[in-house]
Predict the 3D structure of the following.
Amino acid sequence: MEELVSSPVSSPLPGEEVPFARIAGAMVRGNCQDAGAMRALVATVVAIGPVDRLADAAEALQQVGDAGTVRGILISEGDDPAPPARVAGNTVSLIGLKPPYVNNAVAALRLSSLPTLVWWRGGRPDTLDGLAHLADRIVLDEPSPREAWARAATLFDISAFSDLRWARLTQCRALTAHFFDIPEVRAAASRFTHLRVSAGDGMTARLFAAWLASSLTLASDLTTEIEEGASGDSALREVRFGDAEQELVVHVEPGRTCVETAVSVRGHRSASRLVSLGDLSVARLITEELRIRARDAAFERALHHLLKS
Amino acid sequence: MIAAMTASASTNPLNDGLRLEPTPGPTTLVIFGASGDLTRRKLLPAIYNLSRRGRLPAQFAVIGIARSDMDDEGFRKQFRDSLAEFAGVTGRDEVAESLASRLTYLSGETDAPELYARLATRLKEVDGGQGMLFYLAIPPSVYGSVIQHLGAAGLSRAPERGWRRIVIEKPFGTDLASARALNHLAHQHFDEEQVYRIDHYLGKETVQNLLVFRFGNGMFEPVWNRRYIDHVQITAAETVGVEHRASYYEGAGALRDMVQNHLMQVLSLVAMEPPIAFTAESVRDRKMDALLAVQPLVRDDDPAGTRHVVRAQYREGWVNGVEVAAYRVEKGVDPRSATETFLAARVSLDSWRWAGVPFYLRTGKRLPKRTTEIAIQFRRPPLEIFRRASLTPVAPDLLVVNVQPDEGISLRFEAKLPGTRMQIAPVMMNFRYGTTFGGEVPEAYETLLLDAMLGDPTLFARHDFVEASWALVTPILDAWAGSGGNPLPTYEAGEWGPAEADDLMKADGRRWRSL
């Protein structure tokens, strides 16, 4: 291990420090020592964000690796043009890298011929410009996403974008969509008078409402209410969509693992269904995102709609 | 109003970009044999898992039918017990409870017309919508009776906007004549598109991946032929003995239990030509072509079939660390039984692609390890310039598709050993589903049950395939029946079959892969 250099600075991320140019060699050697790590790699996942959000990203990447080995690259932005690299198994981290060099680092470290997914947990939005050219998919995951969303919307033609809020909505979207498999319900949607979306955070609720508004032909006098819960998490709580005659309801009790959908006609429930929400852990969501290669037109439409409103 | 409407997902704009897979329309699943082992071990857990994944429709109901004296609550208790034992569900589970409320039960004799009258009434009562899937998880001897009664009760024909399908478990017949008779009877009441003959091997991920591996990649198909492949070995080995299935197995044996269905399906997937599209009919047509190319195993110059087929029965031995009894002393087995628990066969395909490439099949109970695999052995290079550099005789390249238990694909090839001398040795490159993708792989029954509800018959056996398969194995059964007092070879439990199986390979200058 001659290329290992000692570092007096403690890092929140695991691994040994190595010169940047020797990262690949250190990874190979590390894997040779760990027979369990000798597995086929399936993708590169680049997590970019503040240091405090990279520690849990590293943990999530470890779990992602349990489901399919990935090369993890963890980068936080700073003002260091050449921060020391830390290597732990298949993961390399660079703390405090100058933003203009982020895409250079990713270009050098990503696996060739395999997909690169960028997990954007925060940073200068213009960094996304360079990353869009390197990444097959960029998954946004910012607490306050407006700026990143606005930047992403200009890059849709360059890379495929998604958002973890959007990924968490998948099951509820599918169940909501199921109502509209019935042509008469689709037709009735244009006469619906109210849409109420309640979620742990307002952006999730707005994204869901924007998805419906950008996908369906809705009445011009539709009243849309967004209700933000106190929890701040991005879980959807309830959707009520209908008119005085009938209402479609998607409901998730706080702390429950299932979502219930129901059709209410004149206040009486005529059909209901209970489905598991599934595993909504960050690691599971990133694993799902790794399986998708295409652009998500529905997300792009919803985001455009949200940004305009 | 909404409940009465017809589903039509084709133009639903909200489905755009959704990553979830399709959900069947309103369905009532009617299980004949609801108190049986298959229902408890496989079907009920599969239904639960499909529901947990959100793959069942909102309007879904299950009607269980069996002779056991049980009411709706009893069936629901059986459902919960089954989930606890076979699906790892402990404690109260919301999805299970929601599903349990949709389960009802009818007790009765399957040959009694009044049962079908009650079933018709119950079907009208339950909120299951227009789709009905009848699942025959019952002994094969009563398939005919149930099919006939369903037809007579008018339950096999769907009204407009509805569908009726029937899932029939293996064994589908016991020989060519009985398979034909069963097909004929089924077709009197159901159209072929309504009949789903299940072979759970086809629901396994790796078996399905064979199609992707061969036809989703450009690099394998060009070498997938007689020019590059020396031979193919298909092995389906079990460590278990006859267990509680003696009454069935005594009349079946390895040929009927494994070869006629599972191994022939796998063989056809390995040997088939590329389909023009991934559609049920195109895939099944090409599989059928492959099966039709298989040459008879009993020929005029070998009326006993011994040149191509070896059968044997296990005697006492040692498996998985314990001493085990001989087949003939297992509970429920005739002490003079001539039922084969092992079978090996050399199969030739008379086709442009496979002429001269033997397919060796072997299957058995009480073998040293549980494994199912397809091994494609390639020809050696035309000139072995590294013969002197090899530490061992140069091994031919080998592609192994592991079907179970460690699903994946391995490629063995020669590589130079590091060092200044030119030395070469075989190395393995492994792809493993579990470690590469992880996650939860659906059970075969989940995949197949869902496909039947969705109306996708790709992974089910078509009537002509079943008959063609029986046409291949029935002459062997006839030859064995006429062999009189010829002694049945035996093998020690825990070994890879009898010496005769090795001789089958030796005669061709080959040997079985050591697994």
In short: The two ends of chain A are 56 Å apart (CA to CA). The longest helix of chain A spans residues 51-67. Confidence is low (pLDDT under 50) at residues 1-9 of chain A. Chain A has eleven helices and 14 strands.
